[in-house]
Specification:
The protein is mainly α and about 80 residues long. Helices cover about 65% and strands about 0% of the residues. α2 packs across α3. The chain has one domain.
Length: about 80
């Protein structure tokens, strides 16, 4: 029997808990006294997506600097 290989994209997408993200967005809307509606939540998420690449890049630099990322590359 062959081993089933799952693509890292699928694994990561399955691992990310979207309900936590939705709760954070709706909670912050409430904290800012804005209506926690689907439309407002979507606007916040789309805006956040435009900035997420900066956050990911910054996080990677810090993790690499601290030696926290595992590399499969041969040295």
């Amino acid at each position: 029997m062959s081993k089933v290989v799952i693509h890292p994209l699928t694994e990561l997408a399955d691992w990310i808990d979207t309900s936590v993200i939705a709760e954070a967005i709706l909670g912050e809307l409430e904290n800012q006294e804005e209506p926690p509606t689907l439309e407002n939540g979507q606007q916040v998420w789309l805006d956040a997506l435009e900035e997420i690449h900066h956050l990911v890049s910054s996080s990677m630099v810090g993790l690499i600097t601290r030696g926290k990322l595992r590399s499969d590359r041969a040295s």
